[in-house]
Amino acid sequence: MSANAVTQFIGKYRRWLSFRSGESEVPIRLTHQESLAVAQVEPPGFEMARAGRRFILGNDAAITGIAPVQAHPTTAAQWAIWNADATKTMFFEELGVYLESGTPGVGGALLACLFRTPAQVGALVAGTAISSASKGSAASKAITKTSVTITDPAAPNWYTVAQYGGANVTAFASATVFEHRFLEGRIAVPPNYGLGLAVLAPAGTTPLFAPFAMWVEQETDME
């Protein structure tokens, strides 16, 4: 291409249309004010769901919740979500725990940390299930585990992901949930790393919590 060559872009002012295969040229869509229309039609998360890259961690009737701790954790993760994929990074969009049984105390926090060892292998914890959020053909290699003693880093950095400040209520009588639904990919778990979770809350009356999460998986160059 010569130094004086000009690259020409053609934009078309029109209503949006579903993509039609077979077109040799796809014009750029402009708005009525001649601004470039960028994802003004698709809802947030559209493309990753369409591509089968979004996954959800849920539970079934066999799940056994875990009681909260009353002292700040050091190396003990109550729950762990391990990324066993060799190439894809997990970018979390939602993360939390909910009350499975018992009566919690007043208030509490959900803490999370990244860890490298010990590596987690084998089947998912009974009662947990990971599936595509769009029933896509791709399957996640993420693994759930409980009661993991972290060895690397020696002193994990526990971050407060979510808090609960409501009154103590019996299970299912109220939305007793520690949740963060607006992470938008801000927590990244690289290949062969894990995400540790711990609920720091009053003892209550034998409250047991179970996790939930949503994330997308994408190959990327992690720095």
Report how far the terminal alpha carbons are from each other.
34 Å
The number of distinct β-strands equals 13
Encode the helix/strand succession as letters: EEHEEEEEEEEEEE
Structural class comes to: mainly beta
The overall pLDDT, averaged over residues, is 87
- Percentage of helical residues? under 10%
User: Could you name the ranges where pLDDT drops below 50 across 5 or more consecutive residues?
Assistant: 171-175
Q: Provide the domain count.
A: 1
The radius of gyration over CA amounts to 22 Å
Main β-sheet description: 6 strands, antiparallel
Describe the structure.
With 223 residues, the protein is mostly beta strands. The protein has one domain (52-219). Helix content is 2%, strand content 40%. The chain has 1 helix and 13 strands. It has one helix at residues 46-50; strands at residues 11-13, 28-30, 54-59, 76-82, 88-103, 108-115, 128-132, 143-149, 159-164, 177-180, 187-189, 194-200, 205-219. The strands form 3 sheets. Strands 3, 5, 7, 10, 11 and 13 form a 6-stranded antiparallel β-sheet that branches. A 5-stranded antiparallel β-sheet has the order 8-4-12-6-9, with no helix packed on it. It has a two-stranded parallel ribbon with strand order 1-2. The longest helix has 5 residues, at 46-50. The protein is elongated, with a radius of gyration of 22 Å. It starts with 10 loop residues before the first strand and ends with a strand. Mean pLDDT is 87; it is low at 171-175.
